[in-house]
Design goal:
Number of strands: 5
Shape: globular
Strand content: 5-15%
Amino acid sequence: MKIKSKDFEVKPHSDIDLKKLPTLIEPFYDGKPHYKVLLDAHVKELRNLQPRLYADNRYALLIMFQAMDAAGKDGAIKHIMSGVNPQGVSVVSFRHPGPDVLAHDFLWNAIRVLPERGRIGIFNRSYYEEVLIVRVHPELLAAERLPEKTLENGSIWKGRFRSIRALERHLHSNGTRIVKFFLHISKEEQRKRFLARLDDPEKNWKFNEADVRERNYWDEYMKAYEACLGATSTEYGPWFVVPADDKPNARLIISQIIIETLRGMPIDYPKTDVKRRKELQAFRRMLADEGLEPAKQSKR
């Protein structure tokens, strides 16, 4: 069964009801060995596409992950990007903002770590936290000390959606291609994964008391995600809702979409024109002649 990216893409300006979107679908693999073969093929293709992006040096790729806790963001990044050259990839995880971040506008912290041309940037969470967790927890918004007019009539969220769309349009027009993933996990599957973290000593470090507290706000988070996904999925910055109860299946979907995004970019190794070819041939003759010098000296 072939993965069709469009099946998971959020249409621009659409109304999203996450309760109607599956967290688990029929797998695209037949057992663990088959999954490994499929993922290895995806990793290999990414490994072949990445040097073209780097050598072309006109475009960048920004990949964003958003999800509830334990949805599999870290694992997806680890497994999918396992074969690419680490020099061409940067991964940024966004944590609770400190005073320096709170002193700036809500996009500043992410803008300063955007990927350079020729590179792949991965945001593990992102500026979308500013319309998700901040929306669920108003006290976080209060800490940003915004002008009162900005907060009037609850218009701040529409304003932030507008700012996000404008930023992503700007990035796209300047060569950064954007692909955004929401890993859609069920509340029950999250519960099971939390229990697994508690029962496995090697995974205890992943568990945080705050993770359990945030489950109390599940419905509020779903409403925030629905508003966000519908308002900020665009042609130049599409959202993909990936069923995440099955981790291997989610990784195959994500890696396929990343591959298709890179394939759709006009990237290739720079062409060598006639003038440049002559220069290279001259350099080659110089280097070849250097190899003959010891032989000439020995004849003397």
